[in-house]
Structure formats: C-alpha cells, structure tokens
Write a structure and sequence with these properties.
By secondary structure, the protein is an alpha+beta fold. The chain has ten helices and 20 strands. Strands 6-7-5-15-16-17-14-18 form an eight-stranded mixed sheet. A six-stranded mixed sheet has the order 9-2-1-13-20-19. It has a three-stranded antiparallel sheet with strand order 3-8-4. α1 runs parallel beside α5, α1 runs parallel beside α9 and α2 crosses α9.
C-alpha cells in the first residue's frame, strides 16, 4: 500500500495518478475534508507564466498545458476556462511586455486599453489574454479528485522506518505503508528536510457578492476572477512575513481591495467569506518531486561532505516528496503528480529541474560554512 500524507491539491493529484496506475492508495490528512489548508484558501487560477523564457517558465507552461486539460476532463463543474488577462504590474513592467511576447504560451491575444475597457477595466494598458486559462473552485476540485480514494483522518506526529515499512504514528493509532508520499506543504518537520529550503508563502482570498458581470479573470499583482452566480474571487499570494496575521493587521484583503478598486468598479462588492492559508515554495522556486535524502545518515557516514567532499547520496527506501508548488499549486500539481506516479510505479526518470537531489549539495556546503563561522570542527 502507498500512503499519501496530505490532502491538498498536491496530495489528491498524487493519490489520483497512483490509483490510476493500479496501486492501493490511502490518503491521510489531519482534517476530515480535503483542502482544509493552503489549497482550500487558493484562488485556483490556472494560467501560463509570462517572462523572457528560461527553465521555470518552460516548466510552468508545460504544467499549464497539462493542467487545463486535466481539470476540464475530470472536474468540468469546478473549472471555468473563461480566459485570463495578464496585466502589467506597473509602467516598468509594461515596458517589459514587448520582450515577453516572443516567449508567450499560445494561443494568446494582445489586448490594448480599449479591449480592456470593454471587459470592465479602467486605466489598464491592456496585456496578454490567454483564452484557455481560467480558475476553479479549489475545494471542490480537491474533493472531486479525492472522492475515489480511501481516506483516513489522522494527525501524524511521527514517522518511523521499521524493516520494510513506514509507520505513521498518531496520538492513538498508527498506519503501516510500504511506500509513503509526503505532500504536507510548508509543514515539513516530520523528517530532516532542511536541504529543501521549504518556506511558507501566505495567501489570502475573498469571495464577494456583486451585481456586476466580469466576463474574464485577470491577474496583475493580485487576481480577480470572472463572475459566476453573482460572485467573484479576489486574492493573491502576497505576504512573506513569518507572522502573516500580524503583518496584515487583521485585514488580509485590505490591500487587495484597494488595488482592485484602482482598475475596476468594486463599489458594490460585499465580502462573503475570507480564506487564508500557507503555500510552500522551495529555495529555487521549482517544485520538489521525487525521493528523499537521508540527511542524518549522510552527515554521520560522510562527515567530510560539509567540507566539499563527495559521497554517494543515500535515499530513504520507499519515501517520496511532492512539495514546493508555491503560488501555482493548481497549475503544477497534476503534471508533477503524474511524473511522480510514473517514477514510483515504472521507475521513470524524473526531470532534473524538479528532482530534490538538486538542492542537497549547496545546502550541505552552507552547513560547513556555518560551522566554520561558529568555530566548530
């Protein structure tokens, strides 16, 4: 049996593809419903990445191409491909858009200020409109994908490797698994995973009632959804403070509401519900997908690695990660989950850009530098 720990978008997509591959899967989460954490607070915007090319943009857009078709097929009731307009954040960003265009995901349309005004936006110079992009109901997507997978509610306090099994210890029970997938997001303290550099990014979302009709979604340095049944979503992954609630002073949507009011009429917006949660990101902003290095054993058996020596990497048996999806969790999750499932079930090679091993050697060298600074041997 394979246990997937964590029932956010990473966990439910991993469970989906593993089950599809014929594996016996159990989805475990501390909550009795999927997407109770950061995934449930997401706006679930699914759109391409713009920029001047490069590995991260290429990977993101490959993931987008896969994700939009995945959601259309499996969760058509919860994914709305009304198109997304990418708007420059400021005049400096507007000047860069011309250089971005050659690297755009296709199909797209170049909008001007007149076209943006027709969509209900003001003081907007236009942007790139991606007609296949859209947004989804985050919790409904996760519920739908988890529906066909056996689930157990348990707050896992400790992991133990015993003989050929993983033991997941809870307050009053334990679960045994031949293989284990950690899809726990920014909370990654069950093992020594410092080398991944996983950090939390706080995101906020508000659902608003409005009489206005928004035919498309848009993204600037925040996102505003198209309207459905008199509701819109406004949100962003925008607070990097370790104490996000203190940073936003109890009003997580205040800055987003002010920004939205600058470009469209929000006068009749009435807040219905607020969602906040933490997303996880890796040190280099690429997803982290694949096997896990046994850090304590590496440091014990090859202590010279902190001084620059090389040694064969030692991985835990039967342990895998799906993490670091950042603010694009609903874009990355389906493709990353499929890649992981193919690696686990068919030993398919993982893309170097997402393999966790890429992060180990720089981290272990820093450990050595820090020890030198403290005068430790």
């Amino acid at each position: 049996m394979i246990v997937v720990l964590g029932a956010g978008i990473a966990g439910v997509t991993a469970a989906h593809f593993l089950k599809k591959a014929g594996e016996e899967v159990l989805l475990v989460d501390r909550s009795d419903v999927p997407a109770s954490g950061g995934s449930g607070a997401a706006g679930a915007f699914v759109s391409p990445k713009i920029g001047r090319g490069g590995p991260l943009q290429e990977l993101t857009n490959d993931a987008f191409a896969f994700a939009k078709d995945f959601y259309r097929k499996l969760t058509p009731h919860a994914f709305h491909a009304d198109g997304v307009l990418r708007i420059p954040k400021n005049p400096e960003d507007e000047a860069k858009f011309e250089s971005y265009e050659a690297f755009n995901y296709r199909p797209y349309e170049r909008w001007d200020a007149v076209k943006a005004r027709e969509a209900g936006l003001r003081d907007v110079p236009g942007g790139f409109f991606f007609p296949e992009a859209g947004d989804g109901d985050a919790r409904e997507i996760c519920r739908t994908l988890a529906a066909g997978v056996p689930r157990r509610q348990m707050n896992v306090e400790r992991l133990e490797r015993k003989e050929d099994r993983w033991l997941l210890h809870g307050p009053q029970e334990r679960i045994e698994a031949e293989r284990l997938v950690l899809a726990t997001g920014y909370e990654s303290d069950l093992l020594d995973l410092r080398y991944l550099g996983i950090k939390g990014l706080w995101g906020s979302r508000g659902d608003y009632a409005t009489s206005r009709h928004f035919p498309i979604s848009m993204h600037k340095d925040f996102s505003l959804s198209s309207s459905r049944e008199g509701r819109v979503k406004l949100g962003a992954t925008h607070v990097k403070s370790p104490e996000p609630c203190r940073a936003c002073d109890g009003r997580p949507l205040a800055s987003l509401e002010a920004k939205a009011a600058e470009i469209t009429d929000t006068s009749d917006f009435r807040l219905l519900e607020t969602f906040c949660g933490m997303r996880s990101t890796s040190r280099d902003h690429f997803p982290v997908v694949g096997p896990v290095i046994d850090v304590p054993r590496m440091l014990e058996e090859s202590p010279a690695i902190v001084r620059g020596a090389k040694a064969p990497l030692i991985h835990f048996e039967g342990l895998y990660l799906l993490n670091g999806l950042g603010g694009r969790g609903f874009v990355f999750a389906p493709l990353m989950a499929r890649m992981l499932a193919e690696h686990i079930t068919r030993d398919a090679a993982l893309d170097r850009r997402i393999h966790p091993d890429r992060l180990f050697w720089k981290w272990v060298r820093r450990v050595g530098q820090q020890r030198d600074e403290r005068g430790e041997k």
